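Hi F.,

I've been meaning to write this up properly since the lab meeting, where we talked about keeping a consistent format for the predictions we share between groups. The idea is simple: the sequence comes first, exactly as it goes in, then the C-alpha coordinates exactly as they come out, then a line or two of notes. No screenshots and no reformatting. I'm using this chain as the first example so we have something concrete to point to.
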Amino acid sequence: MKQMRTRFREWDALVMFSKREFIIWWSYKMNALMWVLGTLFNTVIFFMLSLVTRDSNINFFPYGGNYVSFIVLGLFVNYISYTNLGDTYPRLARIYWGGTMDLYLLSPLSYFTPMFGVMFRGVIDDYPRSVLTMLFGCLFFGAVFIFNQPLLLILILILILVSTLGIGMVSASSFYLFNFKQQTEPVRFIFQDIIIALTAGYYYPITVLPYPLQILGSFIPHTYALDALRRLMIPGGELSTPVLPLQLALSGINPVALDIIALTVIAVVFMPLGCYMYIMGIKKARKDGTLTRWQ
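Output, unedited:
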Protein backbone atom coordinates (compact mmCIF):
# COMPACT_ATOMS: atom_id res chain seq x y z
CA MET A 1 0.00 0.00 0.00
CA LYS A 2 2.83 2.37 0.89
CA GLN A 3 4.55 1.59 -2.40
CA MET A 4 1.33 2.36 -4.26
CA ARG A 5 1.02 5.75 -2.53
CA THR A 6 4.62 6.51 -3.43
CA ARG A 7 3.94 5.77 -7.08
CA PHE A 8 0.87 8.00 -7.09
CA ARG A 9 2.89 10.77 -5.45
CA GLU A 10 5.62 10.52 -8.08
CA TRP A 11 3.03 10.51 -10.85
CA ASP A 12 1.25 13.56 -9.42
CA ALA A 13 4.56 15.42 -9.19
CA LEU A 14 5.44 14.47 -12.75
CA VAL A 15 2.05 15.71 -13.96
CA MET A 16 2.52 19.04 -12.17
CA PHE A 17 6.01 19.49 -13.59
CA SER A 18 4.67 18.69 -17.07
CA LYS A 19 1.71 21.05 -16.65
CA ARG A 20 4.07 23.85 -15.67
CA GLU A 21 6.24 23.25 -18.73
CA PHE A 22 3.17 23.23 -20.99
CA ILE A 23 1.93 26.53 -19.54
CA ILE A 24 5.34 28.11 -20.15
CA TRP A 25 5.43 26.75 -23.70
CA TRP A 26 1.85 27.80 -24.52
CA SER A 27 2.20 31.27 -23.00
CA TYR A 28 4.19 32.37 -26.05
CA LYS A 29 1.58 32.01 -28.82
CA MET A 30 3.93 33.05 -31.63
CA ASN A 31 6.22 30.19 -30.66
CA ALA A 32 3.43 27.74 -31.50
CA LEU A 33 2.95 29.35 -34.93
CA MET A 34 6.67 29.33 -35.69
CA TRP A 35 6.84 25.76 -34.42
CA VAL A 36 4.33 24.66 -37.08
CA LEU A 37 5.93 26.76 -39.83
CA GLY A 38 9.41 25.54 -38.95
CA THR A 39 8.30 21.93 -39.25
CA LEU A 40 6.62 22.66 -42.59
CA PHE A 41 9.65 24.47 -44.02
CA ASN A 42 11.96 21.69 -42.89
CA THR A 43 9.78 19.20 -44.77
CA VAL A 44 9.79 21.48 -47.84
CA ILE A 45 13.59 21.55 -47.86
CA PHE A 46 13.84 17.80 -48.02
CA PHE A 47 11.08 17.59 -50.59
CA MET A 48 13.18 19.88 -52.79
CA LEU A 49 16.14 17.61 -52.15
CA SER A 50 14.05 14.68 -53.34
CA LEU A 51 13.57 16.47 -56.66
CA VAL A 52 17.32 16.82 -57.01
CA THR A 53 17.92 13.14 -56.28
CA ARG A 54 15.05 11.87 -58.44
CA ASP A 55 17.31 10.99 -61.38
CA SER A 56 20.34 10.04 -59.30
CA ASN A 57 21.89 6.59 -59.13
CA ILE A 58 21.35 6.27 -55.39
CA ASN A 59 19.92 2.84 -54.64
CA PHE A 60 17.09 3.00 -52.11
CA PHE A 61 16.65 -0.78 -52.03
CA PRO A 62 15.19 -2.34 -49.89
CA TYR A 63 13.20 0.75 -48.82
CA GLY A 64 11.05 1.31 -51.89
CA GLY A 65 11.71 4.12 -54.34
CA ASN A 66 9.89 7.09 -52.79
CA TYR A 67 12.57 9.41 -51.43
CA VAL A 68 10.02 11.71 -49.77
CA SER A 69 8.70 8.79 -47.72
CA PHE A 70 12.29 7.77 -47.00
CA ILE A 71 13.32 11.22 -45.74
CA VAL A 72 10.09 11.87 -43.82
CA LEU A 73 10.67 8.72 -41.78
CA GLY A 74 14.22 9.95 -41.17
CA LEU A 75 12.84 13.22 -39.81
CA PHE A 76 10.25 11.29 -37.78
CA VAL A 77 12.89 9.26 -35.95
CA ASN A 78 15.09 12.33 -35.56
CA TYR A 79 12.33 14.33 -33.85
CA ILE A 80 11.17 11.60 -31.47
CA SER A 81 14.68 10.58 -30.46
CA TYR A 82 16.29 14.02 -30.22
CA THR A 83 14.46 14.91 -27.01
CA ASN A 84 15.30 11.63 -25.28
CA LEU A 85 18.98 11.71 -26.16
CA GLY A 86 19.77 15.40 -26.46
CA ASP A 87 17.42 17.03 -23.96
CA THR A 88 18.38 15.27 -20.73
CA TYR A 89 21.66 17.11 -20.18
CA PRO A 90 20.37 20.68 -20.82
CA ARG A 91 17.27 20.08 -18.67
CA LEU A 92 19.42 18.90 -15.79
CA ALA A 93 21.68 21.91 -16.34
CA ARG A 94 18.62 24.16 -16.19
CA ILE A 95 17.68 22.79 -12.76
CA TYR A 96 21.26 23.20 -11.58
CA TRP A 97 21.75 26.78 -12.80
CA GLY A 98 18.33 27.69 -11.44
CA GLY A 99 19.51 26.60 -8.00
CA THR A 100 16.53 24.33 -7.40
CA MET A 101 17.96 20.81 -7.52
CA ASP A 102 18.52 20.61 -3.77
CA LEU A 103 14.97 21.86 -3.12
CA TYR A 104 13.53 19.18 -5.38
CA LEU A 105 15.58 16.44 -3.74
CA LEU A 106 14.67 17.60 -0.24
CA SER A 107 11.09 16.70 -1.16
CA PRO A 108 10.01 13.02 -1.10
CA LEU A 109 10.63 12.61 -4.83
CA SER A 110 12.83 10.19 -6.70
CA TYR A 111 16.03 11.40 -8.32
CA PHE A 112 14.40 11.18 -11.76
CA THR A 113 11.08 13.00 -11.33
CA PRO A 114 12.36 16.62 -11.51
CA MET A 115 14.43 16.02 -14.64
CA PHE A 116 11.73 14.00 -16.43
CA GLY A 117 9.21 16.67 -15.46
CA VAL A 118 11.13 19.56 -17.01
CA MET A 119 11.90 17.36 -20.04
CA PHE A 120 8.20 17.56 -20.89
CA ARG A 121 8.95 20.88 -22.56
CA GLY A 122 11.00 18.99 -25.12
CA VAL A 123 8.36 16.28 -25.42
CA ILE A 124 5.58 18.72 -26.37
CA ASP A 125 7.97 20.58 -28.65
CA ASP A 126 9.57 17.67 -30.52
CA TYR A 127 7.27 14.63 -30.41
CA PRO A 128 4.36 16.32 -32.25
CA ARG A 129 6.80 17.53 -34.91
CA SER A 130 7.26 13.93 -35.99
CA VAL A 131 3.51 13.58 -36.58
CA LEU A 132 3.32 16.94 -38.36
CA THR A 133 6.22 15.97 -40.60
CA MET A 134 4.44 12.80 -41.67
CA LEU A 135 1.19 14.72 -42.14
CA PHE A 136 2.81 17.44 -44.28
CA GLY A 137 4.72 14.82 -46.26
CA CYS A 138 1.53 12.92 -47.07
CA LEU A 139 -0.70 15.95 -47.75
CA PHE A 140 1.65 18.11 -49.80
CA PHE A 141 4.70 16.21 -51.00
CA GLY A 142 3.63 12.72 -52.06
CA ALA A 143 4.85 10.65 -49.12
CA VAL A 144 2.98 7.35 -48.82
CA PHE A 145 2.97 4.99 -45.84
CA ILE A 146 1.36 1.70 -44.96
CA PHE A 147 0.42 0.49 -41.48
CA ASN A 148 -0.11 -3.22 -41.99
CA GLN A 149 1.64 -4.24 -38.76
CA PRO A 150 0.70 -1.62 -36.14
CA LEU A 151 1.78 -3.65 -33.10
CA LEU A 152 5.23 -4.19 -34.58
CA LEU A 153 5.51 -0.48 -35.38
CA ILE A 154 4.54 0.44 -31.81
CA LEU A 155 7.15 -1.98 -30.45
CA ILE A 156 9.87 -0.41 -32.61
CA LEU A 157 8.76 3.05 -31.52
CA ILE A 158 8.96 2.09 -27.84
CA LEU A 159 12.40 0.52 -28.29
CA ILE A 160 13.89 3.57 -30.03
CA LEU A 161 12.48 5.84 -27.32
CA VAL A 162 13.83 3.68 -24.47
CA SER A 163 17.24 3.12 -26.06
CA THR A 164 17.79 6.81 -26.83
CA LEU A 165 16.61 7.79 -23.35
CA GLY A 166 19.17 5.39 -21.92
CA ILE A 167 21.95 7.10 -23.89
CA GLY A 168 20.51 10.45 -22.82
CA MET A 169 20.70 9.40 -19.16
CA VAL A 170 24.37 8.56 -19.62
CA SER A 171 24.77 12.03 -21.11
CA ALA A 172 22.95 13.69 -18.18
CA SER A 173 24.99 11.75 -15.62
CA SER A 174 28.20 13.39 -16.84
CA PHE A 175 26.97 16.75 -15.50
CA TYR A 176 27.58 15.72 -11.91
CA LEU A 177 29.59 12.53 -12.24
CA PHE A 178 32.36 14.03 -14.38
CA ASN A 179 31.67 17.72 -13.70
CA PHE A 180 30.87 18.68 -17.32
CA LYS A 181 28.98 21.87 -16.55
CA GLN A 182 29.93 24.26 -19.37
CA GLN A 183 28.07 22.84 -22.40
CA THR A 184 31.04 20.62 -23.28
CA GLU A 185 29.30 17.33 -22.53
CA PRO A 186 31.02 14.64 -24.63
CA VAL A 187 28.39 11.85 -24.79
CA ARG A 188 25.75 13.95 -26.52
CA PHE A 189 28.39 15.48 -28.79
CA ILE A 190 29.85 12.14 -29.85
CA PHE A 191 26.51 10.36 -30.30
CA GLN A 192 24.15 13.12 -31.46
CA ASP A 193 26.43 15.46 -33.36
CA ILE A 194 28.87 12.98 -34.90
CA ILE A 195 27.89 9.31 -35.04
CA ILE A 196 24.12 9.72 -35.40
CA ALA A 197 24.29 12.72 -37.74
CA LEU A 198 26.78 10.94 -39.99
CA THR A 199 25.80 7.28 -39.92
CA ALA A 200 22.15 6.95 -38.83
CA GLY A 201 20.85 7.23 -42.39
CA TYR A 202 18.38 10.07 -41.82
CA TYR A 203 18.88 11.53 -45.29
CA TYR A 204 20.52 8.78 -47.31
CA PRO A 205 20.75 4.98 -47.20
CA ILE A 206 23.53 3.84 -44.91
CA THR A 207 24.75 1.59 -47.72
CA VAL A 208 26.21 4.62 -49.58
CA LEU A 209 28.69 5.16 -46.75
CA PRO A 210 32.17 3.60 -46.62
CA TYR A 211 32.04 0.27 -44.86
CA PRO A 212 33.89 1.44 -41.71
CA LEU A 213 31.20 4.11 -41.22
CA GLN A 214 28.51 1.49 -41.71
CA ILE A 215 30.13 -0.50 -38.91
CA LEU A 216 30.17 2.62 -36.74
CA GLY A 217 26.47 3.14 -37.45
CA SER A 218 25.79 -0.39 -36.23
CA PHE A 219 26.30 0.76 -32.62
CA ILE A 220 23.42 3.26 -32.52
CA PRO A 221 19.71 2.42 -32.24
CA HIS A 222 18.62 4.85 -34.97
CA THR A 223 20.13 2.67 -37.70
CA TYR A 224 17.94 -0.30 -36.78
CA ALA A 225 14.79 1.72 -36.12
CA LEU A 226 15.03 3.44 -39.50
CA ASP A 227 15.78 0.20 -41.33
CA ALA A 228 12.77 -1.57 -39.77
CA LEU A 229 10.35 1.35 -40.14
CA ARG A 230 11.26 1.96 -43.78
CA ARG A 231 10.90 -1.71 -44.67
CA LEU A 232 7.52 -1.91 -42.93
CA MET A 233 5.98 1.45 -43.78
CA ILE A 234 7.13 2.42 -47.29
CA PRO A 235 5.22 0.69 -50.12
CA GLY A 236 7.61 -1.57 -51.99
CA GLY A 237 9.82 -2.07 -48.94
CA GLU A 238 11.52 -5.46 -48.96
CA LEU A 239 11.43 -7.41 -45.68
CA SER A 240 13.89 -10.24 -46.20
CA THR A 241 17.01 -8.88 -47.91
CA PRO A 242 19.87 -7.98 -45.51
CA VAL A 243 21.76 -4.71 -46.11
CA LEU A 244 23.15 -3.60 -42.74
CA PRO A 245 26.47 -5.08 -41.56
CA LEU A 246 24.83 -6.97 -38.69
CA GLN A 247 22.15 -8.32 -41.03
CA LEU A 248 24.79 -9.50 -43.50
CA ALA A 249 26.78 -11.14 -40.72
CA LEU A 250 23.66 -12.94 -39.41
CA SER A 251 21.90 -13.48 -42.72
CA GLY A 252 19.95 -16.44 -41.41
CA ILE A 253 17.79 -14.13 -39.26
CA ASN A 254 15.04 -11.98 -40.77
CA PRO A 255 16.34 -8.37 -41.04
CA VAL A 256 13.35 -6.80 -39.27
CA ALA A 257 13.57 -9.35 -36.45
CA LEU A 258 17.29 -8.63 -36.16
CA ASP A 259 16.57 -4.89 -36.02
CA ILE A 260 14.22 -5.48 -33.08
CA ILE A 261 16.76 -7.70 -31.32
CA ALA A 262 19.49 -5.07 -31.76
CA LEU A 263 17.19 -2.30 -30.46
CA THR A 264 16.27 -4.45 -27.46
CA VAL A 265 19.90 -5.14 -26.62
CA ILE A 266 20.82 -1.44 -26.84
CA ALA A 267 17.83 -0.50 -24.67
CA VAL A 268 18.62 -3.20 -22.07
CA VAL A 269 22.26 -2.08 -21.90
CA PHE A 270 21.93 1.70 -21.89
CA MET A 271 18.77 2.30 -19.85
CA PRO A 272 19.99 0.62 -16.63
CA LEU A 273 23.50 1.98 -17.21
CA GLY A 274 22.21 5.52 -17.69
CA CYS A 275 19.97 5.37 -14.60
CA TYR A 276 22.79 3.96 -12.49
CA MET A 277 25.28 6.61 -13.64
CA TYR A 278 22.73 9.37 -13.08
CA ILE A 279 22.08 8.24 -9.49
CA MET A 280 25.83 7.97 -8.85
CA GLY A 281 26.25 11.51 -10.14
CA ILE A 282 23.56 12.86 -7.79
CA LYS A 283 25.08 11.02 -4.83
CA LYS A 284 28.53 12.33 -5.71
CA ALA A 285 27.20 15.91 -5.89
CA ARG A 286 25.51 15.50 -2.51
CA LYS A 287 28.71 14.21 -0.99
CA ASP A 288 30.84 16.98 -2.53
CA GLY A 289 28.29 19.72 -1.78
CA THR A 290 27.90 20.68 -5.46
CA LEU A 291 24.25 19.79 -6.01
CA THR A 292 23.38 23.39 -6.95
CA ARG A 293 25.45 26.39 -7.95
CA TRP A 294 24.54 28.23 -4.72
CA GLN A 295 26.24 25.70 -2.45
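Notes:
The CA atoms of residues 156 and 162 lie 10 Å apart.
The mean pLDDT is 84.

If this format works for you, I'll send the rest the same way.

G.
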